[in-house]
Design brief:
Length: 257
């Protein structure tokens, strides 16, 4: 059964996000609470920023995973079809980002997404993706109501605003409550998200090049399935942009995507 947020639920979600933005501390680091200088645009102090394990210059051409002396990583050498053009990530799925992501997902620390989303927005131009709009990876409606926010949408919002791109949060939805991806093999992950998404407003994406935004990239199963659905509904091309990428070429025990 297709489950879509009603206009009333959408309005409440937008109102809650607006109120959350008003409650953001404008003069404190969102990680450690240290006072920040005036007129900062990224709510992180220098110490916390320097702890972020940014992705270097040697990475897989397709998924952005760090590699050495190879154009494609181990996962991208597989035979399963890829529907996305490329994926890039801001940083590695390592400490302290691993802890920040856990807090952002499960401990209600949504404000971290604003700081990290600002960094993603600043770095997007480096990848030269010719995109027309931004779409976050959706949560299942029941999970969205339980959590109160979609961390991918918060990241996507900062990316869209920082790059003057339209944000389409309601164009695509998760129509099946999939099991957690952690602990599944690559094939199991792909089967888990198969036919889990639907495009609700195809006219908005027809002929468009789309930037899909998520928090973690591991095997790419989620972004790939979303790209397939978007292309089938008329999108021209799909790129992916994630906060963190799993740097281990063989370990599939982390993340959701």
């Amino acid at each position: 059964m297709v489950v879509i947020l009603s206009p009333w639920q959408r309005w409440l979600t937008a109102l809650r996000q607006w109120w959350d933005e008003l409650r953001l501390p404008q003069d404190r680091c969102l990680v450690c609470g240290k006072a920040l200088p005036p007129l900062v645009t990224v709510f992180l102090c220098r110490k916390c920023f320097l702890q972020i394990p940014l992705v270097g210059t040697s990475y897989c051409h397709r998924c952005g995973r760090p590699v050495q002396e190879r154009r494609l990583c181990y996962h991208c050498q597989g035979a399963w079809p890829r529907y996305y053009a490329q994926v890039r990530a801001l940083c590695l799925y390592d400490d302290p980002v691993r802890d920040w992501l856990h807090a952002m997902r499960y401990l209600g620390q949504w404000e971290l997404a604003y700081a990290l989303g600002e960094l993603m927005a600043l770095r997007l131009a480096d990848h030269q993706f010719p995109v027309d709009c931004v779409i976050p990876v959706p949560l299942y409606p029941q999970r969205l109501r339980q959590r109160g926010y979609n961390q991918a949408e918060l990241l996507a919002e900062r990316i869209a605003v920082g790059n003057w791109l339209p944000l389409y949060s309601q164009v695509v939805g998760r129509i099946r409550d999939t099991r957690p991806q952690a602990g599944l093999s690559g094939g199991q992950r792909r089967n888990n998200v198969k036919q889990a998404f639907a495009v609700f407003e195809p006219t908005l994406i027809r002929g468009k090049t789309i930037l899909l935004v998520d928090d973690i990239y591991t095997t790419g199963a989620t972004i790939n399935e979303l790209a397939r659905v978007l292309l089938r509904s008329g999108a021209s091309k799909v790129y992916g942009y994630c906060l963190a990428v799993d740097a281990n070429d063989h370990d599939l025990e982390v993340g959701d995507t």
